[in-house]
Design brief:
The termini are far apart. Helix 1 (2-11) packs across helix 5 (75-105), helix 4 (58-71) packs across helix 8 (143-163) and helix 19 packs parallel to helix 21 (478-490). 68% of the residues lie in helices and 1% in strands. Strands 1-2 form a two-stranded antiparallel ribbon. It is mainly α. The protein is built from 27 helices and 2 strands. The chain has 3 domains: 2-253 and 264-407, no CATH class; 427-542, Serine Threonine Protein Phosphatase 5, Tetratricopeptide repeat; 552-598, no CATH class.
Amino acid sequence: MIVVAVVTLIAFMPTVHNEFVYWDDDINFLRNPNYRGFWPLQNIRWMFSTTHLGPYQPLAWVTLAVDYLIWGMNPRGYHLTSLLLHTAGAVVLFLVALQLLRRALKLPAGQGNAALTVSAATVALLFAVHPLRVESVAWATERRDTLSGLFFFLALWTYLRARSPLPDGSEPQERSLGWTFILFVLAVLSKGTTLVLPLVMVLLDFYPLRRVRGDFRTWFARPTREVWIEKVPFLVVAVFVGIVAIKGQQQAGALQGLAERDVTARIAAAVYGPAFYLLKTFLPTRLSPLYEWPIPFSPVAARFLMSGVVVVGITVLVVRFAGHWPAGLAVWVFYLIMLAPVLVPFQAGRHLAADRYTYLSCTGWALLVGGSIGWCWVRWRRAGGVALASFLWLVVILLAGQTWRQTTVWRDTWSLWSHAAEVDPKSWHAYAGLADELDRRGDREKNKVPANNPKAEEYYRKALEYYRKALEINPDSAVVYNNAGSVLIDMGRVPDALDCYRRAVRLNPGLPEAHYNLATALVRMERDEEAIDHFLEAIRLMPQFAEAHYNLANTYFRLGNLLEARKHYQLTLRYDRQHAKALDMFRQVENRLLQSPR
């Protein structure tokens, strides 16, 4: 266990020097006061009720609140906590692997301890230091991965201890699953995708626990019914969490309808996922923070057809040889179960794949490869096991070195999107991310010297070049037009910005930021009445849009509509309690209303 922990900590050590990145970290941490500590009490209520950006993850927010109390806004502390959680998860996986491999290899207690220990440590390290884990550990926003992973592994460990045969091979005394249930609840409150744990428990009942036999006629016999009945509380929680998760993603606008992705596209991408992640597991090169949908998209493109062949081929093989090699079928089914919530028919977001989706799903492959040490050790004696272990530990060292390099990709926003553009020169998201970062650098320079700042102007000019590059790849991106408009505003080119905002609204009428920015541009051109319509539309689309309420209130105030101004200043303060300007303006409006004749 100590070796697993030390190697994992070393492989990910560069993460503690990383910054927050402007890819959800800014929205989750830099611009979000609601997670910062447990006082006022509204913070706790927010953590347990919000589906901020889509996921329902109250326990993840609790750990982030603790980070804030300890570290403030220093990103190093947040990254350190994620690393420690990941390390703890790797240690627990070591314990899980010990249980699973003993049952799979059918080793009685006291025999093969060295083989089991080496095999389990290899399993834990193949999982822990693999470069695909970097996104989950090095991205502060993905705290939910490391936290839910720890609870998931703990739940598996307690389940195996409660339901495994005794060392002498006799049936176990049926122990309570109370701890397993509690840990399952903690896991789903950290990340909803762990709701598939009951299916994993049933899979373990088939193999290696063999509480359910292969003969279908025995599945519902009296001795087996308890296997299904004990899962009912878990399934009830899973269904409830699944409904909450889907509603949260819908409210965040992250789930796409059939108009955006038709059935054939979803099937093609769903088949692509398992083959893609399998390839990246065994050949972890050219990893990127974002794997985009190709433009244009064709469901019969070579990559999707080949993925279908791979998935069908593996399925046929593991089913065909299940009698001689049950571990292969068990690992493949586990892999598909764990991937199911994040495959395209159900996944949120506009990406085709993501490294973080492998965090738990690829654990089975680590078990299969690491467990082969024990198999060789038992059948070919110690020499065979030692030879394979030596080779696999060399692989671990190579993976750890690549992981060390991959963590530096997440050092800051510029390095992140530069790497993404290098991996995929056709990534419009990468160019847009670089442009956004240049815009922020220009803003910082402008804050230092507000007028006639050539350095700021140079940043803005380069940002526009990257936005143009992004639009050359994807000319229908409302987000890019919206962000380019903001740069033009900074450069004082208000009419050009207005044109960008109008294009953004036409391309995506459901984008609240585009309506808000269009409204602020109209205010600059003294077209307040038209601006009000777009402020209201932004608020309709995002009722908690504090800045939209604030600027709408300012517009009403200028027009003399004090009652509407007061209403929206109040709403601003409801959604952003620390908005000092809104508080000052609210007091001004209150004073004017008190002084005005009835």
